[in-house]
């Protein structure tokens, strides 16, 4: 069902490190033509670390793990490309639809393809005002049922971070901080929320992955929370001010449901003069590099 590129299939067969990358950041997260440049840059970061990149997407109903240059260009330039979560994969496959994959879909497809490590920017989570609207990202449910290691810069700071961490605990998803004792804040180096476990190396992350397999139990994910460097984070005061304005604007305009996340993120980009986008990209680059290190440690048995 999942079509692996020749490069990815060969690497998996030979036991070499592979890192999954999501495609939504290419199709929906960045303006053209910068999106293609960033997609190629992230793949090169993986290769420079000695691993093989596997960008995940669905093209003409076929889930793919690993895209060639033409396929990357298609994801970056094709208008009307759908944004696919896990729940959308079956309809897309049956109807021959093309789409970019979110964290939930990428995690599932990567695991099905035999890839254990996945790098992204930030996870989805519990939205603010959850007690009223009960809006929670499908990422959390998928990660509670998928054995994959996700390297991220926390959850998007527009969300309810404490509630998200509580949900992850309830769903038995392990969260470890990479050289930090505080959960990252996506655009910011810290959200101010503590994490229960801290690791100092990729080898320690790989050791936890092996322990997961030895222990058995539910096939849950491992989240490696890797903060954006303080030198590259968004200015905290600017972040807080613009986010408060964005939340107020969303409330005034009645923006809810699936529209709320893109509305808030776009408001942050405009309100910070593009600085939030640069902080996001800095976080993604760091996460991709760390994921390659972890994938290498994982395969070095």
TrEMBL record:
Which GO terms of the cellular component aspect does the record hold? Answer: cytoplasm
Q: Per its UniProt entry, what is the enzyme's top EC class, as one word?
A: lyase
**Annotated cofactor note:** Binds 1 Mn(2+) ion per subunit.
**UniProt entry keywords in alphabetical sequence:** Glycosidase, Hydrolase, Lyase, Manganese, Metal-binding
Binding residues annotated for Mn(2+), in chain numbering: 135
What cofactor does this one take? Mn(2+)
User: Which EC number(s) does UniProt give?
Assistant: 4.2.1.70
Q: Which reactions appear under catalytic activity for this entry?
A: D-ribose 5-phosphate + uracil = psi-UMP + H2O
Catalytic center at which residues? 22 (proton donor), 156 (nucleophile)
Q: Name one GO biological process term.
A: nucleobase catabolic process
InterPro entries from the UniProt entry: Indigdn_synthA-like, PsuG
GO MF annotation, one? metal ion binding
Q: Where does substrate bind?
A: 83, 103, 137-139
Q: Which family does it belong to?
A: Belongs to the pseudouridine-5'-phosphate glycosidase family.
Subunit description: Homotrimer.
The task this protein performs is described as: Catalyzes the reversible cleavage of pseudouridine 5'-phosphate (PsiMP) to ribose 5-phosphate and uracil. Functions biologically in the cleavage direction, as part of a pseudouridine degradation pathway.
Name assigned to this protein? Pseudouridine-5'-phosphate glycosidase
